[in-house]
Design goal:
Elements lengths: L1 H20 L2 E7 L2 E9 L4 E11 L5 E13 L2 E6 L7 E8 L2 E5 L6 E5 L2 H93 L7 H51 L9 H56 L1
Antiparallel strand pairs: 1-2, 1-8, 2-3, 3-4, 4-5, 5-6, 6-7, 7-8
Helix pairs in contact: 2-3, 2-4, 3-4
């Protein structure tokens, strides 16, 4: 009897010890993360605690999450679940074998957690953080390399466009320079025609005055007055032609001036260090030198055209005023 009593007592102690031993901390880990389970057994064989997961995301960053868990233990049989905010997240069941807790319910492969203390858990978390840092750094280096490659590509495209625009602008300025003499040769003809009209008006007015007082010449005088006014109208027509020439010239030259000025300002801005390769920098320098060599004679020729147009306009104003004076004098003498 005594021996039987001792056996029963030992069995009860072993069972109670198994249930009591489940309280504690458990951990499992792999290359993808660390799982840290803390359990406390209540006197009525229920379990409370929390599960903390530290998982390595695709971006290399560690994603941490902690949920409260509840459960029950019956000898070696264990059930654990989590229902935050009333929504069931998971139910795990399994067995406790000494220091090993085997749970199923979250996939085809059982989860095996072993007893571990806080220092074990911290070492694994630190290792995971180091792995995360290495991945993030590697991804950052890849992104930086891509950004640098894109920046070089954009710089190359910008340089290609700049060189192309500079070359085109230089060609257009040189073409304008070669046409300046032809443009300038047209201006004296406007001035000569303005003066010729004034001479004709003066002649008509003079002839009209010479016949003043002669009744027989009244018709002739009227014809001369009409001829003088019609001649003066030609001045307006000539001026319209001059203004059309001016407008056409300015319409083609002004955009060229704006382009040359913009490119010249761009040449004065130094490229950022490392933005261009030595060969690209030499290409940019050569383009700017070509622009600088072409822009000086272009501005000189443009100034000659501008001065010629201004002088032609001055002649128009003078001759038109003279013609108006002659016509008014003729009207007073009638």
């Amino acid at each position: 009897m005594r021996r039987l009593a001792l056996y029963v007592i030992a069995t009860v102690v072993l069972l109670s010890g198994c249930q009591r031993d489940i309280s504690g901390t458990y951990m499992t880990n792999d290359k993808g993360g660390v799982w840290w389970l803390q359990l406390v057994r209540t006197p009525d064989n229920h379990l409370t605690g929390q599960l903390t997961t530290s998982l390595l995301g695709e971006d290399g960053k560690v994603q941490r999450n902690t949920v409260s868990v509840t459960g029950a233990v019956d000898a070696e049989e264990v059930t654990i679940s989590s229902t935050p905010f009333g929504f069931q997240v998971f139910i795990l069941s399994g067995t406790l074998d000494r220091n090993k807790l085997t749970l199923t319910g979250m996939g085809p492969t059982p989860i095996i957690l072993k007893r571990a203390d806080l220092s074990d858990y911290q070492r694994q978390v630190n290792s995971l953080n180091a792995q995360s840092g290495a991945i993030v750094a590697a991804k950052g280096a890849i992104v930086a390399a891509k950004n640098e490659a894109n920046a070089r590509l954009q710089s190359a495209k910008a340089l290609q466009y700049f060189v192309s625009q500079t070359s085109q602008t230089v060609e257009e300025m040189q073409s304008f320079d070669s046409e300046v003499e032809g443009h300038l040769s047209r201006l004296p003809s406007f001035e000569a025609k303005y003066r010729a009209v004034t001479e004709r008006v003066a002649d008509y007015v003079s002839r009209e005055r010479q016949s003043a007082g002669d009744p027989r010449a009244s018709v002739a005088r009227g014809q001369l007055g009409v001829a003088a006014n019609q001649a003066a109208i030609e001045t307006y027509q000539l001026h319209n032609s001059e203004m059309s020439f001016r407008s056409s010239l300015e319409g083609s030259v002004q955009p060229l001036i704006a382009s040359a000025d913009g490119l010249e300002r761009a040449c004065r801005v130094a490229a950022s260090p490392g933005e261009l390769t030595p060969a690209q920098d030499n290409e940019r320098t050569a383009a700017c030198q070509n622009l600088s060599a072409a822009i000086v004679p272009f501005r000189k020729e443009f100034q000659a055209i501008a001065s010629g147009l201004a002088h032609a306009e001055q002649v128009y104003v003078q001759e038109r005023s003279a013609q108006q004076g002659l016509l008014q004098s003729a009207n007073r003498s009638r």
